[in-house]
Amino acid sequence: YMLYQLLFSGTSVCVTSQSSMLDVGKWPVFALLPPEELRLIRQACVFGSAANEAIYVTVSDEVFALGTNCSGCLGLGDTQSTIEPRRIDILCGKKIVSLSYGTGPHVVIATADGEVYSWGHNGYSQLGNGTTNHGLTPALVSTNLIGKRVTEVACGSHHTIALTTEGEVYAWGYNNSGQVGSGSTANQPSPRRVSSCLQNKVVVNIACGQLCSMAVLDNGETYGWGYNCNGQLGLGNNGNQQTPCRIAALQGINIVQVACGYAHTLALTDEGFIYSWGANSYGQLGTGNKSNQAVPTLINMEKERMVEVAACHTSHTSVAKTQSGQVLMWGQCRGQAVAYPHLTHFTSTDDVFACFATPAVTWHLLSVDGDDYLTVAQSLKREFDSPEISDLKFLVDGKCIHVHKALLKIRCEHFRALLNETDEETIEIHQFSYLVYRAFLEYLYTDTINLPPEDAIGLLDLSTYYRESRLKRLCQETIKRGITEENAITLFSAAVKYEARDLEEFCFKFCVNHLTAVTQTQAFADMDHDLLKNFISKASRYGAFKN
């Protein structure tokens, strides 16, 4: 069982695959979705001031939203909150490739066709439609983007930037600090190409802080513009910039990815190093202190190569992933200031934001593995009682149950001993019923039992016989959940017989609390004489017969 725990427990699955299944259930906003619905999700985004808005895409490319719907940010055509998912019809079938959001919130997506849609808060023209009217449904952003294919979008608090296949950057919305890069501080009502020193340059990666914008070029250079009072542009000063400025301190260093927090920036080099700069009041720069840095500072990662950096403009949390798959976090982590990168047990940067960021929103569009990939546990469950590759069958009450010798040996000491002594391909079982024995074998494949309480008594007998203590506990829990006045004495008798002390006490107390009804059942009339005497004696001591 311990081996099985190590292999299959939810927090420590150690299955190597190109992409792991993401558990969207870590975000509380998804908690009410039934498991069958969660299994269909292929992409998801959680946003909002309290992580109380969510948009997700299913395997059939349908798009749904749920949450408080602040400023119409769910794109449902109204501002009604919804605790149950509602479909965003206009986005179904669009194939979203990038999604970002602001703090209004406003939401912007790019589709596989290179189109941009936006909706939600629009007080600063961050939807790019030339107005300041909130958008209740997704609308195509077309000004200056006709004929352009957008591959990535990024939002600050109230501005938006978009990256095209040609490496051009377009920006619109709130521009009080120059974050639109237009050379002024006037708000930008529709998409405008960010040119000046980005003219004729090819941008490959973009990111936004609350009030600033960053771009990485194909040659590894990094540019920043907008708000800079915390040094988040990395220019060595604290002056705002209305047009893109190259980070001179990174001369000769090849940056491949940049990520922006609320007021700090992380950059990953092609050699797997991480530089940080900007605000540091929560230790989000990972330098071991809380002093702001206006120039890029190398974070000491003890020679471990990094492959991803993550941050979100809504929080002061920093995250990185190593080449070996380890995830580190620092900065504001559930209210604590963590000044050095801290090793976590997570397997994905997304998990840190779900569990430690404030608010606990997604830092980018979550992409759930859409391949027909099954975990080890799922694969085993599917093969139970399947004759195709089974190498052993049990014959119980004339019916066959198909299993695999190797798995039974791994999971059960009884079978390890039995199957090492026999090469039989069929084993007959007479001691237990088909229903009970099948449930036992299925438990070895799935770690769960699914039986009504009366049948769980038989499984309790079996678990006692095979000394399967965890199975015995599961049986007791099943019986407890199914106890009634009609079956209470039967269950109590079984608990005594199989020395299940906790269950015996539970059933006894239930019988005493429902004594009048229980003593009128057929099971009570048929009760073993010695057991009846003991029951009455114990009930008397318990005070059941006092006036």
From TrEMBL:
Tagged with keyword Repeat: yes
Residues in BTB domain copies: 390-453
Family matches, as CDD domains: BACK_RCBTB2, BTB_POZ_RCBTB2_CHC1L
Give residue ranges of the RCC repeats: 61-112, 114-166, 167-219, 220-271, 272-323
For this UniProt record, give its keywords in alphabetical order, as a comma-separated list: Repeat
State the SMART domains in the record: BTB (SM00225)
| Keyword presence, S-adenosyl-L-methionine | no
- The protein's name is RCC1 and BTB domain containing protein 2
